[in-house]
Design a protein that fits this description.
By secondary structure, the chain is of the alpha/beta class. It has 13 helices and twelve strands. It folds into three domains: about 45 residues, Orthogonal Bundle (434 Repressor (Amino-terminal Domain)), CATH 1.10.260.40; about 130 residues, 3-Layer(aba) Sandwich (Rossmann fold), CATH 3.40.50.2300; about 120 residues, Response regulator (Rossmann fold, 3-Layer(aba) Sandwich).
Length: about 325
């Protein structure tokens, strides 16, 4: 079809009024689900793109979502940023990145961005007990969603997360099924909510198999930490398999195994967590987080909140076990 699609051409294609199309775009709660779907199908078919500046004037919204950019710690947050940006753009929103050194500084950035740019909502990552960022936003009634659970009963808010315990349980069950009985865990020091969650899945898998021996070492994240942990464990009664809280720890375990003449995947099995691009390239078995789905759910939550639809429920997604050469 020639020419730029317009509100009128979408209305004609969907056999509805121009106002109904406008409601679908700006106040979808006023339109029935069947009509919304019919109008959305016409929008997709015609390739209609709303005039962002005009919409901002009508709705008093900036169409901007704020996200704190943290120092790179592997590929997961990079993947999330890309997926979140793509998901937001499909609904005519844009992601605005900002830097902050800590949670308190992040809340100051919220206030500045709301005052200067009129940011509509925020996406938070790295949630933890007593998270002052979520408390700050809740106290002011500001829209947000977190990639990560509240980890405490004190704050209830929209969130999307990946079930880390289920992921490490899947890895442990797989190793048990293949005959391993001395399965070590290499994780982070206690108090890391994500790390403790992943450790719990490993422990539950061993308990279900009736395995009492539970060698484990807690170190700070990174290849060097994983290698040091593996060296400590291998100097005792050597594990036949390792479940790790991250891919970077698993890379360290693999390096130490090879240094000792052991073949990862043949002599000793290793499974990481996060399924980073490097893991795929190097053939590391890993637990994959459904990052694209996490990002899509975050945007869905924010759109519902901004449209004053019923409060979305929390979403806990199941990871996948990706088996490779290790």
């Amino acid at each position: 079809m020639g020419g730029r699609a317009t509100l009128n051409s979408v209305a004609a294609a969907a056999n509805v009024s121009r106002q109904t199309v406008s409601n679908v775009l700006n106040s979808p709660e006023l339109v029935s689900q069947d009509t919304r779907e019919r109008v959305q199908a016409a929008i997709d078919q015609l390739g209609y793109r709303p005039h962002t500046a005009a919409r901002q004037l009508r709705t008093a919204r900036s169409q901007i979502i704020g996200l704190r950019l943290k120092p790179a710690r592997g590929g997961v947050l990079d993947q999330f940023l890309h997926s979140l940006t793509a998901a937001a753009e499909r609904h005519d929103h844009r992601i605005m990145l900002f830097a902050a050194n800590d949670d308190e500084e992040e809340t100051h950035a919220y206030a500045d961005l709301i005052a200067s740019v009129g940011v509509d909502a925020f996406v938070l990552t790295g949630t933890h007990h007593g998270d002052l960022r979520t408390r700050w936003l809740l106290d002011r009634g500001l829209p947000f969603v977190t990639f990560g659970r509240p980890w405490g009963a004190e704050d209830e808010h929209p969130w999307v997360d990946v079930d880390g315990a289920t992921g490490t349980r899947m890895a442990t069950d797989h190793l048990v099924h293949h005959g391993h009985r001395r399965i070590a865990f290499v994780g982070w020091p206690g108090g890391s909510e994500i790390g403790d969650d992943r450790r719990a899945g490993w422990a539950a898998g061993l308990a279900a198999a009736g395995i009492d021996a539970r060698p484990q070492v807690s170190v700070f994240d990174g290849v060097a930490g994983g290698r040091a942990a593996a060296a400590e464990l291998l100097d005792g009664p050597a594990p036949t398999a390792f479940v790790c809280a991250s891919d970077s720890l698993a890379f360290g375990v693999v390096a130490e195994l090879r240094e000792r003449g052991l073949r990862p995947g043949a002599d000793t099995s290793v499974i990481g967590f996060d399924d980073t691009p490097t893991a795929e390239v190097l053939g590391l078995s890993s637990v994959a987080q459904p990052i694209t789905e996490v990002a899509a759910e975050c945007v869905r939550h924010l759109r519902a909140v901004l449209s004053q639809e019923p409060k979305p429920t929390a979403v806990l997604l199941t990871p996948r076990l990706m088996l490779r050469s290790t």
